[in-house]
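Troubleshooting log. The previous structure file for this entry was overwritten by mistake, so regenerating from the original sequence record. Sequence copied from the archived sheet and checked twice against the printout by T.R.
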Amino acid sequence: MSWDWQVFCQDTLDKEVVQGCFGKGGDITYLDWMLSAWGWTVSVSLLALLLALVLGSVIGTLRTLQGRPVVVRLGNAWVELFRNIPLLVQIFLWYHVVPTLFPVMQGVPGFVLVVLALGFFTSARIAEQVRSGIQALPRGQRYAGLAMGFTTFQTYRYVLLPMAFRIIIPPLTSETMNIFKNSSVAFAVSVAELTMFAMQAQEETSRGIEVYLAVTACYIVSAFAINRIMAFIEKRARVPGMVVAGGSGGH
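Regenerated output below.
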């Protein structure tokens, strides 16, 4: 078996090898196509991650509020709903069902719907991590904030959340890496990301090994890059000598 990496230098229409591997004058090579698909994958992943971080932080915080049982139940319902439905099913619901129920959504691009589905799915997981981080803090931190005259919002803003986010950086790193891998389900609704490129390019070129190895390398580079970024953040945010004591900061 011989490998032919020149497949990425071929024009996608006439299959002629293009010098330099990048198309010119409107021509597109398989390398151009793969880099474009990689860009779509990164775009979907980063936007979904941003949405998931915002929603997950809010929902996770609401689940630890004292004396607000209705709010806590709503937060729990959010987590249970989006965490227990498979991601692929949620993609199809957003793409096929939601536009039918809400006509205003019919003109929304599939790219946006995938970002919403992936972001909501991941937000449930991040919400659980934020809740766990807050509840892992010593109970006295909450009381100390309130004793200083802080409101509940200020206690979370200045006392609980800064420490809780430091605790959950390791599991949050796993989620940021997972969101890049989970973005591969976008192919199911025809978003031109890496997995769709791999499937179509393999059929057109019959060079599945080369195509899938290259796509795998793109996923590895993406995941490794986000891993290093999160490791840098963890190192800069670390509190020297901090030992997380078992407590119940949220209750």
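Confidence is low (pLDDT under 50) at residues 243-251. Archived copy saved in two places this time.
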